[in-house]
Amino acid sequence: MLVKAYAKVNLSLDVVGKRKDGYHLLKMIMQNIDLYDVLKIDEVKTGIHICCNNRYIPCDRRNLVYKAAKLFIDKYNIENGVSINIDKKIPVSAGLAGGSADAAAVLKAMRNIYTPEVSDGQLSELALNIGSDVPYCIIGGTALCEGIGEKVTPLTPFRGHILILIKPPFGVSTAEVYKSLDISKIKRHPDTQILIDAVNKSELVMLSKNMKNVLENVTLKKYPVLRKIKADLVNLGALGSVMSGSGPSIFAFFDDMVKAQKCYDNMRTRYKEVFITRTI
């Protein structure tokens, strides 16, 4: 079985509190884009076998794909195993939920193979044990995500909008970013309702002008080059730019493919991982 695992970007990301166990409470709008990994998933007699075309990706118990397969096998008492080949296209440690998307793709594929009666809701509950982005990746599309990621509310699809995505030549630790975040020092939070209204009306300009990610307070301070990328994108015709997740990827929306192509060509002279894609 061949499946696609789509990357996500954050149209907004707000931290609204912190639980006693240390987990941050989030309120964010997530959006799939047409950038994806391809996974080949096959039933085998026993074990969990993973291979990947990216040598930096572990193919053992550290991989979220392995954790997803093991969790599913244990939960539903599956006697057979699974073989998973990952053709990696989504940048790693980029704030794009590449690992979470792969894990969700495995859960959905194994459901189709072994237990088709399991609902998306049941699968999402299982997915939360793997990571906070995985429940969203089960649902996909355009969604409001709250809590620690377990509450996913689908929104009006915001598909077909052009964006440029840039992944700088370094990764960011999500755990370290949240550890460094001081909620009391966040001066400006996203206006989530304005963004939801923009999504409902497919108002690209309104959405682009109101995108906000509070984790920029940490990541942009540590990596000033990200501020320059954001400014360069706007100077090259973007309607607005913002960081995705904990970073370091920066993306920007365009209302015209010609402008987007010119921006892409310009940024490709400076950065290796530059993508021109669309929301889906």
Description of the structure:
- By secondary structure, this protein is α+β, with helices and mostly antiparallel strands.
- The protein is built from ten helices and eleven strands.
- It has helices spanning about 65-75, 100-115, 120-125, 135-140, 175-180, 190-200, 205-210, 215-220, 225-235, 255-270, and strands at about 1-20, 25-45, 50, 80-85, 140-145, 150-155, 160-165, 210-215, 240-245, 250-255, 275-280.
- Strands 1, 2, 3, 4, 5, 6 and 8 form a seven-stranded mixed sheet that branches. A four-stranded antiparallel sheet has the order 9-10-7-11, with helices on both faces.
- A hairpin with a 5-residue loop joins β1 and β2.
- It starts with a strand and ends with a strand.
- The mean pLDDT is about 95.
Provide a concise account of the structure shown.
35% of the residues lie in helices and 30% in strands. The protein has helices at residues 64-75, 98-114, 120-127, 134-139, 174-180, 192-201, 204-210, 216-222, 225-235, 257-268, and strands at residues 2-18, 24-44, 48-52, 81-87, 142-147, 151-154, 162-167, 212-213, 240-243, 250-254, 273-278.
